Amino acid sequence: MIVRDVAEPDFPAIAEIYGHHVLTGLASFEETAPSPEELTERWRAVSSHGLPYLVAEIDGRVVGYGYAAPYRSRSAYRFTVEDSVYIAADSGGLGLGSALLASLIERCRTGPWQQMVAVIGDSENHASIGLHRKFGFRHVGTLQRVGFKFGRWIDSVLMQRALRGEGA
Fold first, then answer.
1. Cβ-based neighbours of 159, under 8 Å, separated by 6 or more
2. Residue 44, Cβ density class (10 Å: 0-12 exposed, 13-18 middle, ≥19 buried)
3. Pairing assessment for the beta strands 80-87 and 138-149 based on DSSP bridges
4. pLDDT for the residue numbered 91
5. Residue-wise pLDDT tens digits, 50-80
6. What's the per-residue H, E or C state across 109-121?
């Protein structure tokens, strides 16, 4: 497995990975899978902030991706980022999430960012909660019943870790 910077030709694979999660899971609160073109535009927006956008590849196949994006658009949040990590449906349990999140944290530590936040869809998403806990994120709150998808109400779990200084 290699973790590398994303390239534009990766977006059909990224759209397939993310689309699966959108259409079958609760990690994303989107309900319509975006096109490769839409995801490419989102990547450009993330890149304009100098933030990392990475893919995990096995034998030349993109099997996961992750990125850090601005947490919020208001200027006071400029030193806080939010991470996102998605793995192909047939590639769980291979350590891809750990490799991607570790790389995102390291890359963000080299920039001006101070805090990383995870907004995890579904309080029953034990895999994502456990992954973030493994990398030093702490639970800072749960927004209860803030999303509605697949005919049910869904929580958002908020986790946070310092990128430098106290708690890093």
1. 117, 118, 120, 129, 132, 133, 137, 138, 139, 140
2. exposed
3. unpaired
4. 95
5. 999 999 999 999 999 999 999 999 999 999 9
6. HCCCCCEEEEEEE
Per-10-residue mean pLDDT for the chain, 168 residues long? 97 98 97 98 96 98 98 97 98 96 97 98 96 98 98 98 85
Residue pair 69/36 in contact (Cβ under 8 Å)? The answer is no
Unique residue bearing structure tokens 């995890």: 120
User: How many other β-carbons are positioned within 10 Å of the β-carbon of residue 150?
Assistant: 10
- Order of all β-strands in the sheet with 61-70: 2-5, 53-58, 61-70, 80-87, 115-121, 152-162, 138-149
Q: What is the identity of the amino acid at 137?
A: F
Q: How far apart are CA 87 and CA 77, in angstroms?
A: 28
- CB contact at 8 A, 35 and 15: yes
Contacts of 102 (CB under 8 A, 6+ apart): 135
